[in-house]
Amino acid sequence: MSTETEMWGPDEATAPEPDDRLKAEQILAATAMAEPACVDDLSAKGFDPADIADERYRMVWYAVEELASTLTASAIRWQAVARLLQRWHAEGRMVSRPLTETDLGELYVIGQPGAAEWWANEVARNAVAARAAALGVNIRVRATNPAFDPDTDVAAIQSEVDALIRPAGQSQMADLGDLLPAVIERATTKPTLEDRVPTGFIDLDILLNGGWAGGQMVVIGARPAMGKSTLAACFARAAAITNRVPTAIWSLEMSSHDFTITMLCGEVKIPVHHLKRGEVDNTVLVRAAEKLPTIADAPLKIDDNPYLTLPGLRAQIRTLVRTFGLKVVFVDYLQLMQAPPAESRQVAVSIISRTLKLIAKEFGITVIVLAQLNRGNEQRSDKTPLVSDLRESGSIEQDADIVILLHREDAYEKESPRAGEADVIVGKHRGGAPGTVTVAAQLHYGRFVDMAES
Fold it and tell me: How far apart are CA 418 and CA 450, in angstroms?
């Protein structure tokens, strides 16, 4: 092994060029022998030794990692590393011919205790660059393949790009003491739109500590024709039109045209059947005209592609977070999404549910997904739905931070004394107590409103 008399130090001005990967790996391996404690420290900070491309130096790192658990010296001598590498090579654990004791002795002297993190960052940066170059080749192969499918291939490429920047399994560990100041500040600071997005219902906001929070997956469950899409439209209007929060809706059941009708009628108080029949009078049109500029400028996007897949959804969300500042996502509804390959429908729904929760957490957004309930409540004397009525998979309940169940007594009993009312039941609330909020059901206007407004 050849070495140079002058090696780079951690000075930015003399750092290695991106393509000088080997020398950074040599110095990192040498530093690991001279400062074994850095192996655990760097691993805890997310360094992956797999980023060391040359197996000879990668195995030095692993050897130090193993020897550090049995040797108490502040440094591990190269002789012990050489013996362990020879044994691993003989056992077939190491494919390449290991560095000799002489090679390791020469390597040892170029270690830079105190600069391990800097060199680890160099190795990791070079590894990302190499993977990016390989990905470029892969993209070209995909793009020139006659079977290229924009929906699946572009989504797969975007996922691979994300993996370059955010390696899976990177440690997010933090000390409790470092987290406490932000929590104390939160305790004395009123939430803003950056922290919480109002739901549009005063009592529901109170119950949910101010509204929707980033990283949450919210499930709205109801039986068919109960009004769950209308409730979602109300939440979307409050977010996008009232509070100007960037919002996106993926409507797998309703067309974007029908969803727009619901949004407009709910905001302007136009009877839905009048609009669909073309019977809106001039008085209402004048009222609508006054609000149209505000509605049209709302940061709201609607996609009614009925063939929505998880990779496609994630790719679109990733783009909208970066270009649009997306904060709130609606999916209407979960059971209509294209299921990934799985041994059963229940497992497929579980994968969809878990992925939606991970998307919410990864991008720091609120994902509100609608879901159908099974017929369990209709078989009980009390028709009030329960969280356990969520259809097809218990994992929906498990993954959700909040489960909201929509119930109208007059859907089952036309002469109910509660006709025109609806219960928004918070059946699960990971950040607080469950509860029920009663709202007025003005379905002829395509909306629910606070009881005071009715």
Answer: 15
Q: CA torsion sign, 320 to 324 to 329 to 332?
A: negative
Distance CA 379, CA 412 (A): 12
Rg (the chain; Cα; Å): 29
For residue 34, give every residue at least 6 positions away whose Cβ sits within 8 Å of its Cβ, in sequence order, or none: 75, 108, 111, 112, 113
For 387-414, what is each residue's pLDDT tens digit? 887 766 567 778 889 999 998 888 888 8
Q: Among candidates 338, 357, 358, 368, which has minimal Cα distance to 249?
A: 368
Tell me the backbone φ, ψ of residue 81, rounded to 5 degrees: -65, -40
State the Cα–Cα distance between residues 68 and 58, nearest whole angstrom: 15
Q: What is the pLDDT of residues 337-380, one digit of tens each?
A: 776 666 677 777 788 888 888 889 989 999 999 988 877 777 77
Name 326's Cβ contacts closer than 8 Å, sequence gap at least 6.
246, 247, 248, 317, 320, 363, 365
User: What residue ranges in 341-396 does DSSP mark as E strands?
Assistant: 366-372
DSSP 8-class letter at 390: B
Query: Residue 205 and residue 284: Cα distance in Å, rounded?
Result: 30
d(Cα 195, Cα 333) in Å, to the nearest integer?
26
Asked whether the whole model's pTM tops 0.70, one would answer no
